[in-house]
């Protein structure tokens, strides 16, 4: 029989090994923010005729040659609306000149400096709602697990689930901070969505393991807590792996066939779901055991 | 349901057929090329005309696609900052953005984009909303300042009473809103009560005339002010003014201390609804003028959308294959349940309708994962019971009852998260939360009802090891 609980310190160490570089990276370099967060420039271009695919790629080329990152390009008939990284007046004049040369007669209708779509308020909002929902989940788990055998307090289940959630969120944030620094990967509004998805998945996954512990505690009144926890992890192992394998398979197809625009979003989901599965098996339940041992040692 | 699996099956088949019809009603056009590392690119072309008779039913069941997938309307508004101190203008612009976001949020889940923008010395707000159907309503909703004030008649002997001019220019000089001098005279004064004393506004209907009206609930402080004002104006007229325009001038019959009031005006339901939203979201700190209004295309690009769609379909088949490999006949049953699940969710997306964006689709994918998980949980439990030597029928029952607690608790946790995110979030976050919550509800239904019925009907006395 596999003994996961016995080797728990190895698993904790592995988690730290992955998370700590990410945290250091976050502290040192932070994140590379997309214009969703930082704001940028927006140009409205007007052409004398309907804009076709050829013209669009010519426009994209002009921006590329000028080393200005083009974030979105939207067309409707003769108008092209472009959002870019911040551009100053001089660069704007240069781009306009190049566009005239390469894409024909064009008029710049608007040139604006735009603020973020996701302002600091929205970000703070998202984080505080995540914190609030974590708190509510702790209460819910504490309530739902209230029948659990003493001396394991039902509050511990909730708190350990949230620790596993923090593990996953920190890991994902850390990985993207590193990716941002070394590969120039940016964080945008889709990343926020991926982060939320991972948070949802993490708790979901952890609760399934905890539910088994709750049930086994009720059935084997005599067995030591460590034993019960280890059994429960093993009994839910197949389910945990199957579920996340299904999710990972779907995400891999999205990575292979989905367009470029969702690539990093999918990568974020893959990292998060892998982490969520790991943390529910190797962190959340072992943490319960650590807590239980610590508490009973203090009593003696 | 327990004793009538056949009836349940019939219900599921009917539901599936209805969902299938609704989902097949929209025409689909796919046209792009897939990169192929070994050889020339694969062209994917497909043109599906849709079901003709659905148009006869008078309703369009097409997906509402969001800004990223389909585009919509872009509205550029200019903030009139002349009255605002230079150092405060950035702040004022940001609060304009916040109020507009709040207002649009009241309209539902459509993931708008609201951005501040500066062009030279112009302070602007860009609002992008998906779709083009209700642009005028949106402009009305977003552009109005929505400053609510209450006016009373001033004392007779004030110096202004000598003047009789009521043209717009002299009104502006007096600072009186249009329509007020006619009902209160030229000495009208603004009371201390304003829109910021409001706790909540709601649309109600007049019991006698059945006309829409907006009822107001004041804060404790506001209720006190309103009580004072109605007391000193008993028998007199009190004017209710919105954005410098008189909407109503009722005569106060008795002092009102309860902190409730009603604006009856003469609204259409939509106007009343807009006003309620604007009052609840708060007034704009500055007035706005619409500079420009134009249609814009999808921000993600058509090929990107189509690729993701194909990836989604491929992903679905991957799940089916994986489940069948893992659980054989059970996997096939799960795949059937999953098909029903997907059809129901997609139908709800079309019916409600939900504005689909990439974030919403992410929520949907997560919910598919959750639905699969519910099935896996049940099957693993059933396998355990079968290993103990139980019969299929009792293994099904026990598998369900044992798996139910973990399905319930894990889904409750996800529901809590999505509810909080929906309530406090904006834009992307809300869209994600809504589709996730919807998906969870349907997945619970699918696990409890659909999977169980399928199992009872198709899995009695099978060969499963």
Can you tell me the overall shape of chain A? elongated
The whole-number mean of residue pLDDT values of chain B reads 81
Mean pLDDT of chain A: 87
Identify the strand order in the major beta sheet of chain A.
Answer: 2-3-1-4
Instruction: Output the CATH class name of the largest domain in chain A.
Output: Mainly Alpha
Uncertain stretches of 5 or more adjacent residues of chain B: 157-165
* Main β-sheet, spatial strand arrangement of chain B: 5-6-4-14
User: Remind me, CATH topology of the largest domain in chain A?
Assistant: Multidrug efflux transporter AcrB transmembrane fold
User: Using DSSP, what is the number of strands of chain B?
Assistant: 15
Distance between the first and last residues' Cα of chain B: 28 Å
What would your notes on this structure say?
- The complex is a heterodimer of chains A (300) and B (465).
- Chain A has helices at 8-29, 35-38, 53-65, 89-103, 120-144, 154-183, 189-219, 225-257, 263-299, and strands spanning 40-46, 70-76, 79-84, 107-114.
- Chain A is α+β, with helices and mostly antiparallel strands and 300 residues long.
- Chain A has 2 domains: 8-34 and 118-299, Multidrug efflux transporter AcrB transmembrane domain (Multidrug efflux transporter AcrB transmembrane fold); 40-114, 2-Layer Sandwich (Alpha-Beta Plaits), CATH 3.30.70.
- In chain A, a hairpin with a 2-residue loop joins β2 (70-76) and β3 (79-84).
- The relative contact order of chain A is 0.14.
- With 465 residues, chain B is of the alpha+beta class.
- Chain B has 2 domains: 5-26 and 301-458, Up-down Bundle (Multidrug efflux transporter AcrB transmembrane fold); 72-296, Gyrase A, domain 2, CATH 3.30.1360.
- Chain B is built from 11 helices and 15 strands.
- In chain B, β5 and β6 (122-130) form a beta hairpin.
- The longest helix of chain B has 50 residues, at 302-351.
- Chain B is elongated and about 95 Å long.
- Residues 157-165 of chain B have low confidence and may be disordered.
- Chains A and B meet through β2, β4, α5, α7 and α8 of A and α2, β5, β14, α8 and α9 of B.
